[in-house]
Amino acid sequence: MREIRFFLDWGPKYPIWETGTDKYAMEPSDYGLTLELDKALRSYVDFWNEHFIETDDSFEWDSSENKKAFDAEGDRLIRWLQDEVKGIAHVRDER
After folding, report:
1. Can you list the alpha helix ranges (DSSP code H) found in the chain?
2. CA-to-CA distance for 14 and 30, rounded, in angstroms?
3. Under 8 Å CB-to-CB from 54, ≥6 apart: which residues?
4. N or C: which end of the chain has fewer CB within 10 A?
5. Half-sphere exposure of 92 (CA within 13 A, CB side)
6. Chain centroid to CA 34: how far?
7. SS3 label, residue 73
8. pLDDT per position as a tens digit, 77-88
């Protein structure tokens, strides 16, 4: 069974990755995900890019409220992703 790795990194539009593929940084269309989940994953990355900010030599959240909201949304998206890829892939949370 395939394994989707769920984590964020600078650059890619989506937090989904798969080792052993030519792409590595994957897109919802690679798994036939719904448009709604596609948009939610993209919004999740956009939120991270907007609120996880550079400060001197490191990165940190601009507020604890945004960090909590981000974590809760990540949990929700992982469950949603698991439902949509059931039977074809396992989702591993690497946040």
Report:
1. 35-51, 64-84
2. 12
3. none
4. N
5. 9
6. 15
7. helix
8. 999 999 999 999
Q: Return the number of other C-beta atoms located less than 10 Å from residue 91's C-beta.
A: 21
- Which domain does 52 fall in, by range? 2-93
Greater confidence, 4 or 55?
4
pLDDT digits (tens, 9 = 90+) for 9-59: 999 999 999 999 999 999 999 999 999 999 999 999 999 999 999 888 889
The single residue listed with the structure tokens 């798969």 is 18
| Number of domains comprising the chain | 1
Q: What's the pTM value of the predicted model, to 2 decimals? A: 0.93
Return all residues near 26 (Cβ < 8 A) that are at least 6 apart. 4, 14, 16, 17, 18
Q: Are 24 and 18 in contact (CB under 8 A)?
A: yes
